[in-house]
Amino acid sequence: GAVVSQHPSRVICKSGTSVKIECRSLDFQATTMFWYRQFPKQSLMLMATSNEGSKATYEQGVEKDKFLINHASLTLSTLTVTSAHPEDSSFYICSARGPETEAFFGQGTRLTVV
Amino acid sequence: AQSVTQLGSHVSVSEGALVLLRCNYSSSVPPYLFWYVQYPNQGLQLLLKYTTGATLVKGINGFEAEFKKSETSFHLTKPSAHMSDAAEYFCAVTTTGTASKLTFGTGTRLQVTL
Predict the structure, then answer these.
(1) How many CB pairs under 8 A join A and B?
(2) What is the Cα B97 distance to its own chain's centre?
(3) Given A26, A30, A74, B74, which is the most exposed site by the fewest CB atoms within 10 A?
(4) pLDDT digits (tens, 9 = 90+) for B5-18
């Protein structure tokens, strides 16, 4: 199957700093990427959907100024958590799909804000 | 609107026993249904999916699921559990076949004992 690479797999940052998470489709063109957040022992909650070259569409309750999503190319989307706080600590997962493909998931990024 | 209910947050089976993970869905239009597996600190891997056609779907690692419209169910089964099957399993629904904007269930943690 197609490969989606997410980096970093783990990151620890200080409160108030910003963190960038990358999601790359390695062998297909990802016209749409999705960003999910997963709390411990809970399901995945969709944060936003981004189409290449367009602004991301955020789900209700997700702060777009805090979670900046950029999808500037067909193989790369980034999620930047700005001014991170301990409550932003979570597991973040991206998925990517092409025009006629199903969605493939990245390995996830565990963010810890101290 | 669509939703997924997974009955049983934890399921424990003996190695070699039948695995049954339950999933019921709600959708106002014909659904597309997916089962994903997640190992600790990793992303999601697609086990199988139902889009159209045959209602009994076979997936990877010996898993299969049957779409039953009358029962609005898509239960996941495996005839004989293996220790390596221990993981978190998520049922998901969408209204498009390419897994856009998935709605996930709360997950079922499968434990396999000797």
Answers:
(1) 56
(2) 16
(3) A26
(4) 999 999 999 999 99
| CA–CA gap between residue B26 and residue B75 (Å, rounded) | 14
| Token duo for residue B92 | 């998901």
Tokens of A29: 């063109």
3-state SS string over chain B? CEEEECCCCEEEEECCCCEEECCEEEECCCCEEEEEEECCCCCEEEEEEECCCCCEEECHHHCEEEEEHHHCEEEEEECCCCHHHCEEEEEEEECCCCCCCCEECCCEEEEEEC
- Three-class secondary structure of residue A30 per DSSP: coil
pLDDT tens column, A35-71: 999 988 788 899 999 988 888 999 999 999 999 999 9
Q: Which of B36, B43, B104 sits opposite A108 (nearest CB)?
A: B43
Interface contact B52, partner A, CB < 8 A: no
Residue A1: predicted pLDDT: 64
pLDDT bin (cut points 50, 70, 90) of residue A18 is very high
